[in-house]
Amino acid sequence: MMYRTTKLFVIAAFLAVAIPALADEVDDLIAALTGDDNEARMIAAKNAGTVGPSAIERVGILVAAQDYLTARASRLALERIVAAAGAPGAEDQRLAARELLNLSDSIHHSITRREAIRLMGWIGGRENAAALGELLTDPEIADSARMALQRIPGEEVVAALLAAAPNVDDAVQPGIFYAVAQRGSEDAIPLLIKAARSDNPEKSWMAFDVLTRSGVAPMDIIPRTHAKDLADRKRYASGFLRAADVQLGQGKRANAEKMYASIAAFPVSPQHACAALIGLKNSQSPKLIEHALGYLLESGIRDVAERTLIEAEIEEIDDYLMRAYGVTNAAKQRVLLKVLAARKPEGVERFLNEARHNESPMVRFTAANALGNVPAPDAFEAAFASAPPFERDEMSRTYFKMTVAEQRAGHTDGA
Question: Nearest CA to 57 among 130, 144, 119?
């Protein structure tokens, strides 16, 4: 009994000395932050981490001070205090979080509130998720609260976000849905689909974008007829491509292939067609061949169509391309020769030699070039004259390079 009494006396004596000492440290910090000596102010701010969480409220209020130098130094001081409280092995993390939540109360200036909530993202834990979730209904600090929650791990965060979602402003809701989707949680999908089908166009499309980034197919969200003008149709098509990319990454190749093929068949812009072709190539889909062949002469798409055919790793693609060569026009035959020469399948040299006797001058020119032969000037002139306008520039550059190579090889007469 005597030991216990002595122990309590020692603790009481320590507190009697320590508490005033801590209070003195806080007073000194506040005096330095609000004083006229800027050098002393910044030194105090940089060393504020030793003061402890007891200073958070008073320093946090100064963050909104009218004097810029005081506000700037106070923000630095608050960051140092919170960082020290959240450091490994520190015992003040929960106390600091509690003090920061107190600063988020509406009695404080909006600058102070937002800064306190931002720092909750540094040290807040899952036990603080519900309290931060309640702040989402306050438009003044909702975005800050959402960003703080996004930095905190745990299912409690998802629960807090979803609990707040029906009660927040329309402008805040998409951000909440996106935060949930980032966690890989499917709990938000029903709410997102409901939001995507709302009468508010901005809210609807933002929810649509979040869903497609989560891999949800657009046709499962809203019908294509929802896209009423060109801008909407482009947004809808972009959603297809985003969802397809996600599903391909998840190993759902068949689903992704269908979505890519849908956009390749009915693109709303050259950019969408190119992205669809690249998606079909990445998913190793045989459907790439038919779609890419259809775009070999299309402005803004033909280069990507050619490249995807060259890079594709699809079974029997070379046989398919050789057969296509025999049933298409001369302009496409020329591109197919370039593709086959780049792919170098078995028997391509024989194929190219046969193409040197094609009735089209530009096909003969391309075959000779692929085999490393320099066509005679009259052969080039004939090929140039018969080529489509968009092919002529490339043919001229190619022939010039061949001529330079001849000259460097010492064949000056031919050059």
Answer: 119
